[in-house]
Amino acid sequence: MTTNRMQGVIRLHMKDKMNWLVTPWIVVLCSFAVNLVISQFMEADLYTGGVASLYIYMLVIGIVTLTHTFPFAIGFNVRRKDYFWGTLVAAGGASLYSAVILTLLSYVEYDLTDGWGSGLNFFHLPYLSDGSLFVQLVVSFLLILNLFYTGFFITGIFKRFGRAGLFTFAIALLILGTVFSFIMTQQEWWVNVIDWFNAHTMFEFTLWTLPVTVVFMLLSYAMLRRATA
Amino acid sequence: MVVKQKMSVLIDDSRPIFMQIAERIENDIIEGRLAEESQVPSTNQFAAFYQINPATAAKGVNQLVDQGILYKKRGIGMFVAEGSRARLLENRKEQFYEQYVVTMVREAEKLGITAEQLSEMIRRGERSQ
Amino acid sequence: MSTIVKVDRLTKSYKDIDAVKDVSFTLEENKIYGMLGRNGAGKTTIMHLLTAQIFPTGGDIQVFGEAPYENDRVLSRICFIKESQKYPTTFAVRDVLEVAAGLFPKWDREFAYSLVEDFRLPLKRKMTKLSRGMLSAVGIIVGLASRAPLTIFDEPYLGLDAVARSLFYDRLLEDYAEHPRTIVLSTHLIDEVSRMLEHVILIDGGKLLLDEEAEQLQGRAYTVVGSSSKVESFAAGKRVLARESMGGLTTVTVMGGAGSDDRKQALTLGLEMAPVTLQQLVVHLTGGKPEHKEAKAQ
What we know:
The complex is a heterotrimer of chains A (about 230), B (about 130) and C (about 300).
Chain A: H1 2-14, H2 17-40, E1 46-47, H3 52-75, H4 80-112, H5 115-119, E2 120-121, H6 133-186, H7 190-199, H8 202-225
Parallel strand pairs in A: 1-2
Helix pairs in contact in A: 1-4, 2-3, 3-4, 3-6, 4-6, 6-8
Chain B: H1 17-30, E1 39-40, H2 43-50, H3 54-66, E2 70-73, E3 77-80, H4 84-111, H5 115-128
Antiparallel strand pairs in B: 1-3, 2-3
Helix pairs in contact in B: 1-3, 2-3
Chain C: E1 3-14, E2 17-28, E3 32-36, H1 43-50, E4 58-63, H2 72-75, E5 78-82, H3 93-103, H4 109-118, H5 132-145, E6 150-154, H6 162-178, E7 182-186, H7 190-193, E8 199-204, E9 207-213, H8 214-217, E10 221-227, H9 228-235, E11 239-246, E12 249-255, H10 260-268, E13 272-275, H11 278-285, H12 293-297
Parallel strand pairs in C: 3-7, 3-8, 5-6, 6-7
Antiparallel strand pairs in C: 1-2, 1-4, 8-9, 10-12, 10-13, 11-12
């Protein structure tokens, strides 16, 4: 019975394939097309961050999903728990789907076509795409999932604590961020940060986002348990 | 889709609905619309027809079962018992006496109408029909 | 009859307002209930509490013998159709029905689609593009086709015309006869549903005002008309709900047993007696004018 209703939630999300699977790729491929055209006219190799639109889009889905589907699901008497796990499966699946496509395109770009024949570096970027295909897949997957749950967490605050709660959180974050960067500058620690990135691969960095993602998930879950639609 | 003409207008709020359902069935038997040994609509049909709660309809029907006017055939439904029309008529005549005759006589007394005048009035009423 | 809902001294407070205060009642299996009361009386709050969509401040709720919060054994057996139900903006009517099919264990697909035809709903149309009446029809279809052992309709038919409402009553009664379940109806159109109700729960100002079999309520109150002096002598010692005078004539609405004693007394005094409908009774008891929410919404 439990799994049935969790499946119901997955089905609920999959009713919106457009939002999860199609639209993000339309955005990315549009950006890709534009860059491909530009690269034709450039002599040097073109390096572009257009693929970031995919990650940003996942952040937006994370924010929007909760607002769109949580009140509906709760109204149809879904347990908050089933909603959470069903959404996790849907988000995990969508992240894997996009990560696989990203990796394949990176392979085509770097290994097969040498920058689509025009020196375009769109899906395969230095440092970010270092490592084997499997490593690239894991990196993309974890990053996408992280961004989804960042968005999910933000809306979770809104659902649980309302506008005032989200506002308070934003202010707190702003103050913390300011203090943090002030200290970093004062102590001249920024250099250390750059050193850290130099000393670590993208893969290692991405692994560090995993605990952050898990914390966002757990906090979201805790908030949903007491949230009213 | 055809919307059924609702028979809910046949029910009023002055008396319990189940009594009115029972009365409607009684009337149908007395006036011959429901013959003896014929099947009576199910309680669910009554409920849908009058847009009333099935439990209420069942209560009305069961009242007639208790009185032996209707009887249950297992698995088939509800039927009009033999001799029920005669029994109902008998009951109704008794009710008629209680409800109309007694009150009429009482009212007549109050107005000083004699028994002779009263029966003349009844004859006049018959003629005007 | 087994009890499926047991609410004990339920209270829900928002800051300094008690939306629901000390309400206790039970619901029995396979009955049709009317939960009546004015706007803001607390009906909707109670229904949200029953389905654990909001959390009580005090008191206890048992549904199917267990606490409903995060309890799938309970929640999967309830279908709560509310006026304010939200749908994902990208969803078409068909999507809602398909998702509902996956969420309600007793869902009857064929029944759902026959209802879609009855209500002439465009399956492919987006929920956001539906008229108020069509939106209500979707809720009604989900509520009926879910066949949930506890089905709650809260103002299910805003924007629906008389024909569609009558259709709803027909389908509800037909399906209820074949698949008995507990149904709670909350509505302003009391006259339309009063004969379908087996039991009435009346809420006013967050409190329970009445919890009685519909049959017992029928004839509980009645109106008596006659010369003022006679009406007053009749009304003496009785609970008068309303009183109106015009010239030498007085009308009183009295709450009583409506036993034959009252009837006889009125008769001997030469007073006219008229029954009070459930709707009028509710209006009298909750001390206000009848609401016209339906009219406003259209």
